[in-house]
Amino acid sequence: MGRLKEKPKSYLRTTIGMKKSITLLDKQFDLYIPESEILKAVQKVADEVARDYRDEVPVFIGVLNGAFMFVADFLKRYQHPCELSFVKLSSYRGLTSTGIVETLLDLPEQVAGRHVIILEDIVDTGRTVQELYHMLAGRNVKDFKIAALFYKSEIYNGEYPIDYFGLEIPNRFIVGYGLDYNEQGRNLRDVYQLNKPSMINLVLFGKPGAGKGTQAAFLKDRYNLMHISTGDVFRFNMKNGTELGKLAQSYIDKGELVPDAVTINMLQDEVAKHPEVSGFIFDGFPRTTAQAEALDSFLEGRDMKIDATIALDADDEVLVARLLERGKISGRSDDQDEAKIRYRFDEYNQKTAPLKAYYHGQGKFHNVNGIGEIPDITARLAAIIDTL
Length: 388
Ligand code: 5GP
Ligand code: MG
Hints:
Number of domains: 2
Shape: elongated
Largest sheet: 6 strands, mixed
Radius of gyration: 24 Å
Helix content: 25-40%
CATH topology of the largest domain: Rossmann fold
CATH superfamily of the largest domain: P-loop containing nucleotide triphosphate hydrolases
CATH class of the largest domain: Alpha Beta
Order of helices and strands: EEHEHEEEHEEEEEHEHHHEHEHHEH
Strand order of the largest sheet: 5-4-3-6-7-8
Number of helices: 11
Bound molecules: guanosine-5'-monophosphate, magnesium ion
């Protein structure tokens, strides 16, 4: 099997016309897999598929946009009877992406009763593959397989097998050979990997109303971070009536927490889909020690870590007043009822307090006075971040 784990340097053989590093928009990328290696991998996939399907007439389904180049080179190397079609999927990218995949171009009719082989450029978390399984489930196909050119096996957490793959790669963000960074780089013949400066990942916590959202908005711009407010993501989904939203609705209405597995899945998607940022601000998660451990282990799998946890401290009475005011404007039901607010504070005290001990034990815990003028509070936060 073509393995590429932790050996990018061995592919840095430069030949004429092949640039060692390139710039796309605001990012630097370094040469990672030259065209010759990619084409060997395509050949390998084509040979394996041919071994299994040469006596049939399979329907190949390319996944747009990323797979267009792979599909073309694959078909040139698959000289047996076959048909070709395409699907197009896209993740919602609203205020944050949610792992919900939208169908932009659907499966053709001809798949019923046929051998279907999906041609994917890259498998990462497996969300897209899962969606393809669902799309095909009601179509009475004879059988279907997944053939991916690149496979990030370390972070794939799907339940379905990746039947054929060209190269197993570690968890890097790559561009070229059909794969894009913000729509650019698809025309590169070679594959490049993101040159990633060190990241800053923060956990921000504080009681509801403590100003996490306000401060996160400033930190986000200042340090090129992505703010992931689990509450905001869930509310966005609830507003749009998605499955995730309906699930979250029942819990949030009661002022309770969404189950950990749901939230972790959502976070994984956010992180996977935003390679362009210099780090993340996690807000609203973790809220328990168990969640903090889960977050640590998922970040570790991505070669990331939490650098600092900052608590915005504020007095309960100040916060109750702030929230009731916010509730009038936003219409959020959980901000209009003082009893519900105090319930959320109690829950915060009970469940979040042990987190302080957890992060303190890791030497990452910081307190900041959350009362005062907004810019002053930002300056207090920045003073901590600048020492990281
Ligand atoms: P998954 O659904 O498995 O998490 O991700 C699959 C999709 O995410 C791919 O079809 C591709 O659009 C995008 N993707 C995942 N990893 C990468 C990567 O390293 N580079 C680029 N350009 N896109 C990626
Ligand atoms: Mg794709």
